[in-house]
């Protein structure tokens, strides 16, 4: 029996990028330095060593701030999307995508973060960018905070550990909502907000050697982000009543290594902890299991009067999430083979193939993640990151054949359709990254996700010429047939 796969009318097929990985132009038109601008090229660090890839110290930051070049800091140059966005958006329009997820660089609008007046040149850039998206028939999906904050706030406020940063972020959020209220109807507050527990500097501007108790600092900073996110929901509903605003989670689905109850419990705890962040942002309260963890670890969260009411009243309209791979949990992993994955590693699953970067490929895991999230929250879901990082070869005639990427996308989209048949409400799907860009974790260029190729190597050499890959035409056809 042949199954015809079609998706709901108005389904938002699209792509995703982040300002700090694509724009470049790190010191142009009044932009201030952000945490992303201090990220060094870590191409020689083991692909599975996320602790080293995400490690940062005061000494490293001082060196980065002194070095004004882009040689060792690839995110400073990105793929020059800042200057080339008309060409890139024309290609994406040709591909037929309905939406593009991108982010606004905080330091383009408020270079230090704490200014009272925004940088008009930064605001004008996003006016032009959003207008060009709309011109190409692309609905903007904008993330307010995607792995970057002003370095001034890191050095003078301790990043998100300071309650003052909430008010500073609210000023930024209010500014962009008022400026772009007629252009943007879909918003996301914090990219992968859960990541702060794994890489405190990237998500929270927390430099570990500046804090006596880093875990305490992390969870206090997270609380401030929860409050900032709730304020963003409140403001969005007031300023743009017809808009929707969601939270965003890294989906870290865990299977038990065996049916040993201890392994099952380990997987359960990992899955439960992964959902703590959406429990707060969608259910509006801190769950009992995390309160227990705080008690047992001696963590105390300072809350201002009214915080609990704010979290309860201003919950996210939808849940967006990234899904790249699943994980395996064991009560005792000593001696077991391990693999890498999105922002963390784990025990190898012998039933799954792996990517060039050692990430396990598990399409069925996406269906499970969708079902788990929807059964728990009953709110619309949006897959805003899914894709395959791989080595690509440009043939002598300029073509790029990437059947491995097509197979990855096809198999995950098939499982997304199965979840729709299961009754899950899905708003859309944006391929990460729709165009080659700088890797988040290692700042490499050769780890390519794009359906559009960018001629640039790890050291920044290349013409920056854009080329359509085979996957470009495959996705174009899929969108034109609404996933048929």
Automatic annotation (TrEMBL):
Name of this protein: Amygdalase
Pfam family of the protein (one): Glyco_hydro_1
Record-linked InterPro entries: GH (IPR017853), GH_1_N_CS (IPR033132), Glyco_hydro_1 (IPR001360), Glyco_hydro_1_AS (IPR018120)
Family: Belongs to the glycosyl hydrolase 1 family.
GO molecular function: beta-glucosidase activity
Positions annotated as active site in the UniProt record: 385
Residues making up the signal peptide according to the UniProt record: none
GO terms for biological process, alphabetical: carbohydrate catabolic process
Keywords of this entry: Glycosidase, Hydrolase
Key word Transcription present: no
SUPFAM superfamilies with a match to the protein in the record: (Trans)glycosidases
Any one GO CC term of the record: cytosol
Organism the protein comes from: Paenibacillus amylolyticus
